[in-house]
Amino acid sequence: MIYKPYQYQAYAANWIIEKKKSALFLEMGMGKTISTLTAILDLMYDHFDVAKVLVIAPLRVASTTWEEEVKKWDHLKTLRISKVLGSEKQRVAALYNKADIYIINRENVTWLVDWFDTDWPFDMVVIDELSSFKSSKAKRFKSLKKVRPLIKRFVGLTGTPAPNGLIDLWPQIYLLDGGERLGRTVTGYREKYFLPDQRNQMMVYTWKLKQGAEDAIYEKLSDVCVSMKAEDYLELPDRIDNTILVELPKKAKEQYEMLEKELILSIADTDVLAGSAAVLANKLLQMANGAVYDENKEVKHIHDEKLKALDELIEAAGGKPVLIFYGYQHDKDRILNHLKKAKPRLLQSDGDIKDWNSGKVNILLAHPASAGHGLNLQAGGNIIIWFGLNWSLELYQQANARLHRQGQKETVIIHHILAKDTIDERVMKALEDKDTSQAALIEAVKARMNKYKEEMKNGSESL
Predict the structure, then answer these.
(1) Do 126 and 107 lie in a common domain?
(2) Which of 7, 182, 309, 320 is the most exposed place for a label (fewest CB within 10 A)?
(3) If DSSP codes are grouped into helix, strand and coil, which group holds residue 414?
(4) Residue 90 included in any domain
(5) Last residue of a domain, one of 199, 233, 267
(6) Tens of pLDDT along 234-272?
(7) Are 129 and 261 found together in one domain?
(8) What does the alpha-carbon distance between residue 41 and residue 33 come to, in Å, rounded to a whole number?
(9) Statement: residue 414 has pLDDT above 90
């Protein structure tokens, strides 16, 4: 695909190119990754300023997002990616691959620093979700701080640099500039810009800004940090759709493929009817989500990959409210149990709607059928997460319209968590093409049926 950047994306890429230490505080969906990759390409092959780049990211992002962006855009095809993930043996092997960009999950930063010690090879480091380095006591911060003098270029990316207030900024900015702007110690930073707020004798729990401190901090950072809101820069839609692909574990993928094959072959010698196709699609959608009802209506757990992706999306939202749409009862139960510490609310009554719109609910779960026509939820947030899809275009459109409607003051971000190489991708395409008719469902099943028939034919011929 040919890359035609928006003006703000070109500006963001140039910001990275022109500054040896920089941060992009861009909201979700504004293209932080593509802007950074474009800058890396320029720095590496036009300016010859960097030779080896390290990207530190959340695990799912490290596994998929950066590589997928490189594959997506024509101008990035020359960039070589090596993902430093998995077991130690796999990580070591990846480090010795010849590549331009090495991608590691943030949990392994300390391992990486210890592995190279003073022979640190990366002259440019990019932290995707810089706010995950907001604790100066964390091992990952201390490890990166140790090798910071060996890094020529440093880039921080996040949409929420200070989800809990400006007190969180010091560790992040220290990694950028070694204390040049906000001081060399977090204690000095607090003393200069903050006053104790909630405390118990000598123990201070929260801090409040001194008068004029907020403007002073922003002024200090203005030469290295650029902040943009989607609503201010996106000329096209006030809606951004994101696809988050998760990879099923080997065992789960085998279970999925076995069930798909068994169900399809059970109807292989009959006409494919809407009823049988719907039953098949229903079972496979459940498995893609992570659990399935067996013949006794018992829930069988398959995997937790979508729950992990959900965690990362909620973290990336930086405290902003999120509306989660689920498909099955077991999805709802697993999500509520998984997020119980965050006190999610299930949409059940007018009171839930009122609390959501008044900002009292941070995580709201809803079935698309229960959040259909007439509900106004746009005052409560602008982020939707589809944990599991369904084949109904009407339900899909109406559910999205709860936030994506008149009166919404922010760009609506709609995330779709899809299991890779499963029926999820076919349903997503049908929704995008607005073709979710019974005929489309039946044709999708027939396509899989023909695949398995061909496999069986080839298998018998080889005997």
Answers:
(1) yes
(2) 7
(3) strand
(4) yes
(5) 233
(6) 544 468 899 999 999 999 999 888 888 777 656 555 544
(7) no
(8) 12
(9) yes
The whole domain housing 72 covers: 7-233
Cα dihedral value 45, 51, 56, 61, nearest 10 = 40
166-170, 203-207, 375-379: which is most confident:
166-170
| pLDDT tens digit sequence for 95-121 | 999 999 999 999 999 999 999 988 999
Are the C-beta atoms of residues 155 and 225 closer than 8 Å to each other? Answer: no
Task: Give dist(CA 15, CA 20) in Å, integer.
Answer: 9
Question: What CATH number does the domain containing 251 carry?
Answer: 3.40.50.300
Residue 367 lies in a domain: yes
In a shared domain, residues 309 and 350:
yes
Eight-state DSSP code of residue 427? H
Enumerate the β-bridge partners of residue 418.
245
Angle between helices 213-221 and 169-177 (to 10 degrees): 30
Query: For position 29, what pLDDT does the model report?
Result: 62
Judge whether 264 and 279 are in contact, CB under 8 Å.
Answer: no
Could you tell me which residues come within 8 angstroms of residue 288 by beta carbon, excluding any fewer than 6 positions away? 248, 256, 388, 418, 419, 422, 423, 424
Assess whether 226 and 260 both reside in one domain.
Answer: no
pLDDT given for residue 272 in this prediction: 45
Give 171-194 pLDDT, tens digit per residue. Answer: 999 999 999 999 999 999 999 999
**pLDDT on residue 237:** 45
Averaged pLDDT, 330-353: 93
Picking from 73-82, 169-178, 211-220, 257-266, which range would have the lowest pLDDT averaged per residue? Answer: 257-266
**What is the spatial distance between Cα 12 and Cα 39, in angstroms, rounded to a whole number?**
9
Inter-residue contact 108 to 139 (CB < 8 Å): no
84 to each of 109, 211, 410, 456, how far by Cα in Å? 10, 45, 36, 38
Is residue 443 within 8 Å of residue 429, measured between CB atoms?
no
Is residue 124 located within the same domain as residue 248?
no
311 plus 163 within the same structural domain: no
User: By CB neighbour count within 10 A (0-12 exposed, 13-18 middle, 19+ buried), where does 127 fall?
Assistant: buried
Q: What is the pTM of this model?
A: 0.64
Both 319 and 200 in one domain: the answer is no
For 222-252, b/e burial (b = at least 16 CB within 10 A) is eebbbebebeebbeeeebbbebbbbebeeeb
Which residues in 403-413 are b (16+ Cβ under 10 Å) and which e?
Answer: bbeeebebbbb
Contact 321, 361 (CB under 8 A): yes
Q: Which of 233, 258, 292 lies at the terminal end of a domain, its last residue?
A: 233
- Judge if 250 and 373 occupy the same domain: yes
Query: What would the DSSP string read from start to end of 139-206?
Result: HHHHHHHHHGGG-SEEEEEES-S-TT-GGGHHHHHHHHHTTTTT-SSHHHHHHHHEEE-SEETTEE--
